[in-house]
Amino acid sequence: MLTHNLTGLIMLGVILLFTLALKLRNERVDYKVLGFFMGFTLMVAAIWWLPLIIHYGFIFHNPQMVILGPVGYLGILNKTMGVPALIFVFLWVVTMINDELKKDYVEKWHNRLSRGDILIIIWALFPLILSNAYLLGFSILIDRILNFAVFPVMIIAALGLEYIYSNKKPAYQKAYKVTIALLIISSLFSAVFCALSLKPMVTDSQRDLAQWFADNGDGKG
Q1: What is the pLDDT of residues 125-173, one digit of tens each?
Q2: Which of 13, 19, 68, 133 could form an S-S bond across to 138 if both were Cys, CB 3.0 to 4.6 Å?
Q3: Distance between CA 114 and CA 100 in Å, rounded?
């Protein structure tokens, strides 16, 4: 809450939705612990936010609205998550559904999910749903919000990759080794390409100004 306000708000949103999901499953929820956590979090946030609100009032500058459409949104999703991760996420979802269809349970499917499953699903879906708020006319930075879905999506993608590894058939084992090798090679090439394509954030005029102060300033301020 003292580092990045959007990160803190996403964290609180995930925790509250997770608590609500447990309550809907009729699981025990310790509201004292939740209340202590929320109270302590708000106290920490007040160190930064309260003086600003008292002095300046509540100010929020929306970024300029850009209508992307489905194609543009998918492009940002691909850039943020990467195609391999999305493929392995899809694999995990398919295997989970397939495993559930093979089982014969009386209880409903959502009651069979573990707390870890519920947390990781909510953590991934909450930023994904929030990033589509532009469809309702809200001005948001879609890629910034999608960044918060990267962590749970990578965990789910790892679970999808684990499915290939857990199958002891020789063909699956070979596919797993080839996949790991391709991921490592593609990551290295991607990193090198990214590093070579980066440009300085400082403009020529800003450098000229800094040089002028270096030559003509008093050297103290």
Answers
A1: 999 999 888 777 777 788 888 999 999 999 999 988 888 888 878 888 8
A2: 133
A3: 13
